[in-house]
């Protein structure tokens, strides 16, 4: 057992059972060796598009797909400099991977169309996996009570985390669905905060909506072969999560490595897992235990957001 496999947060944080934190008995904060993306051989061509691919988790996702053998990675964000830096790191990982950087604001329709054109031109219209990772947190006022928060911060959070996900997905869906033999996967990077009516209201609401969005995708496009997941990355120290204004008591949740969710993401999308489509998946879970509950998950329609009655 590696040090990473030995790390278990279950019990230490004493979280409510409905948060799903204990859905598998074993939990991780670093990827277990069985999920190591370096041992995966994706069949080429394999094209992945990652929004928010310029730093933080998006950077880890681009590197993990390169390790797993993706042939082409498209990374999109507003900061071109950050995208170029991630491109260099990906090509250091595997020089045979083609990386396309696209300056893109996920809330802009013209940006979304430019991203689509880049994939049509550079990837011959092929797209296997879309990772909706770009996200915004109103770190200044998102934590304040409703009457004290900044409406602009609220609007911006919902714009990036909900409208942006909707816009990029609807724009790129024809490419995903049109890729013959493709993975046809959409992943939205959600948050544990979507379970709670506390902390940042805009973040919690936006990720709750994202969870439901993947359920819509599954329902509407399942027959066309699409799979859609909401993936919680764990608590990871990034520019967003450590920005000034984020309450200190939340820092104790930033105990996961960025590679925890990047390797889980590769596992999730390296083959079709229709039984998990439309559902919430936490990167902290053990995949063998998760697969062991496959029948129950489908039969009882678990890992979706439902009212307690
Ligand atoms: N870190 C955690 O513990 C944690 C936990 C749960 C969920 N998440 C989710 O994980 C995702 C990644 O966050 P992170 O922690 O890696 O934060 P981060 O390091 O701040 O990265 C955020 C990324 O999103 C991009 N972005 C923001 N607004 C954008 C826009 N309008 N258009 C295009 N790209 C935009 C940023 O690039 P530009 O600013 O250059 O555009 C950046 O590349 C987010 O969806 C976040 O909610 C994180």
Automatic annotation (TrEMBL):
InterPro entries: NAD(P)-bd_dom_sf (IPR036291), SDR_fam (IPR002347). Keywords: Oxidoreductase. It holds the Pfam family adh_short. GO terms for molecular function: oxidoreductase activity. Belongs to the short-chain dehydrogenases/reductases (SDR) family. PANTHER family: DEHYDROGENASE/REDUCTASE SDR FAMILY MEMBER 11, DEHYDROGENASE_REDUCTASE SDR FAMILY MEMBER 11. This is NAD(P)-binding protein.
């Amino acid at each position: 057992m590696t040090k990473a496999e030995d790390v278990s947060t279950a019990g230490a944080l004493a979280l409510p059972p409905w948060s799903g934190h204990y859905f598998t008995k074993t939990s991780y904060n670093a990827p277990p060796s069985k999920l190591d993306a370096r041992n995966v051989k994706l069949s080429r061509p394999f094209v992945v598009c990652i929004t928010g691919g310029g730093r933080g988790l998006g950077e880890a996702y681009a590197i993990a797909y390169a390790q797993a053998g993706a042939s082409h990675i498209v990374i999109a964000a507003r900061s071109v400099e950050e995208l170029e830096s991630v491109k260099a790191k990906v090509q250091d990982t595997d020089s045979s991977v083609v990386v396309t950087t696209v300056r893109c604001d996920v809330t802009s329709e013209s940006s979304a169309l430019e991203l689509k054109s880049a994939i049509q031109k550079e990837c011959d219209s092929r797209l296997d996996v879309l990772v909706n990772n770009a996200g915004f947190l109103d770190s200044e006022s998102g934590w304040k009570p409703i009457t004290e928060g900044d409406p602009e911060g609220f609007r911006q959070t919902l714009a990036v985390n909900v409208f942006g996900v909707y816009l990029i997905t609807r724009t790129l869906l024809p490419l995903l669905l049109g890729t013959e033999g493709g993975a046809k996967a959409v992943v939205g990077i959600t948050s544990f905060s979507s379970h709670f009516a506390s902390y940042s209201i805009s973040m919690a609401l936006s990720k709750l909506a994202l969870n439901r969005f993947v359920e819509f995708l599954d329902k509407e496009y399942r027959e066309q072969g699409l799979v859609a997941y909401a993936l919680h990355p764990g608590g990871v120290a990034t520019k967003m999560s450590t920005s000034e204004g984020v309450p200190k008591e939340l820092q104790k949740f930033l105990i996961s490595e960025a590679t925890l969710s990047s390797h889980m993401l590769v596992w999730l999308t390296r083959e079709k897992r229709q039984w998990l489509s439309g559902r919430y998946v936490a990167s902290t879970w053990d995949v063998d235990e998760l697969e062991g509950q496959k029948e129950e998950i489908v039969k009882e329609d678990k890992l979706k957001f439902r009212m307690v009655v």
